[in-house]
Amino acid sequence: MSTGFSLEEEQLFEKTGGAVFERLRKTRNPADLLGVLRQAHKRFDRAYDSAPATARAAVACRAGCGTCCHVPVGVQAHEVFIAAEFIQTRYSPEDLAAVIDRVAAHRAAFAGRTMDERAALKTPCALLRDGSCTIYEARPETCRSHHSHNLDGCRSNLESGLDVIDVLIPEIRGRMFAVMLGIDQAVAEVGFDGQAYDFGSALHEALTDAMCVVRWRQRLPAFPESCREVGQPDDAPDAGVIRAEGFFQ
Ligand code: SF4
Description:
Layout: H1 7-26, H2 33-40, H3 42-49, H4 53-57, E1 74-75, H5 77-90, H6 93-110, H7 115-121, E2 128-129, E3 132-133, H8 141-145, H9 151-160, H10 170-190, E4 197-198, H11 199-208, H12 211-217
Antiparallel strand pairs: 1-4, 2-3
The structure holds iron/sulfur cluster (SF4).
Iron/sulfur cluster (SF4) is lined by residues 69, 73, 125, 127-128, 133, 135, 139-140, 143.
């Protein structure tokens, strides 16, 4: 597979994917599977720490910003369950009810719209409060991967709806993407749902239907079609599905 990675990033992809694949494959108790993936998310922190000091010093992201939390977030199913479990165990009953209302509204707003139309809504994530993520420890992989060196550029991109200003930091972005692709490829290769879902829509489903995680553990599609991340210009029936190609076996 051509990934466009540097040699170091390619090695990080292989190391991450191989380790996650083996741990998932050897996990016998289905209840432990999400724990394996929660642990795997710590690899993002280690990859960040391994980036050059100059690259880390360039990061301008700060608590209270939340600009990047106004765009659709694409995820695999396991990321939704990690977030849902965090919400169900940490939120008060009142806050849980409120977030279910917000993700229900998000899902209704996104239903039947293309990706571009969804992005144009600039809907704040249902988990954003006062500019900060309320599930920071359990946030999705895309959220963990985003680091900007230019806050004004982030705001301009959001206002215009066009990603014309490059705000990313290559040495960090490459590492984050290698970890994300390694985890997601391993998940699909072990046989779990490899489809891409809209985070807010799938989160509503996960918080209101306990059978979703049961389906996932059975290696079935976890969420209904209505939660799929669809509508890209080059959309195809299987768009967003990560194919298992034998990288880690
Ligand atoms: S999960 Fe957290 S970091 Fe990700 S978009 Fe929502 S508020 Fe932002």
